[in-house]
Design goal:
The chain is mostly helical and 167 residues long. It is 66% helix and 7% strand. This is Homologous-pairing protein 2 homolog.
Length: 167
């Protein structure tokens, strides 16, 4: 700063121990009002151009991000090959299932459903009986139902996260 001051490009003023540097106004030519208005117009034009370029830059950045996040052609070709291979595997599995000769007959299916209903009803009946017995015991038991079940070692359907089949 001191070198610039010695060269005359900037001026220096000392206030006590502090030095202040500022531009030497003698090196600039005098500007009249019409030149100032022209410079103001040029500044506003350049500001508008800057804003336009900034907006287009943002738009191009967004487009670049979108393109970078999408798959390349090689990646898409590889993905298509993988999906075709997976698809052919599923087709082969489907054909194997269709050609199988051990299909379940409607009579066997009906028999299984009836057995399921019978066992489901039995399950519900036994659950209701067990619940009634536990409630009868709880009438004279000083602790809570949860403590009784834990003490006796009974696991409920809810503890095992199961439910009787719906009929």
């Amino acid at each position: 700063m001191e070198l610039l001051a010695l060269e005359g490009k900037i001026k220096e003023k000392t206030y006590g121990k502090q030095k202040i540097y500022f531009a030497n106004q003698d090196q600039f030519k005098d500007v009249n009002d019409s030149d100032l208005k022209a410079m103001d117009g040029q500044i506003s034009e350049l500001g508008a151009e800057l804003q336009s370029l900034t907006q287009s830059c943002r738009q191009l950045d967004a487009e670049l991000k979108e393109l970078n996040s999408s798959l390349t052609t090689e990646d898409m070709v590889a993905e298509i090959k993988e999906l075709k291979a997976e698809n052919s595997g599923y087709k082969a599995r489907l054909e194997k299932i269709k050609s199988a000769t051990n299909h379940v007959t409607p009579e066997e299916k009906e028999k299984v459903y009836k057995e399921r209903d019978v066992y489901g009803k039995e399950w519900k009946k036994r659950k209701r009986l067990a619940s009634d017995m536990i409630n009868a015991i709880l009438e004279g038991y000083p602790k809570s139902k949860k403590e009784l079940l834990e003490e006796v070692g009974v696991e409920t359907d809810e503890d095992c996260k199961v439910a009787p089949p719906s009929t």
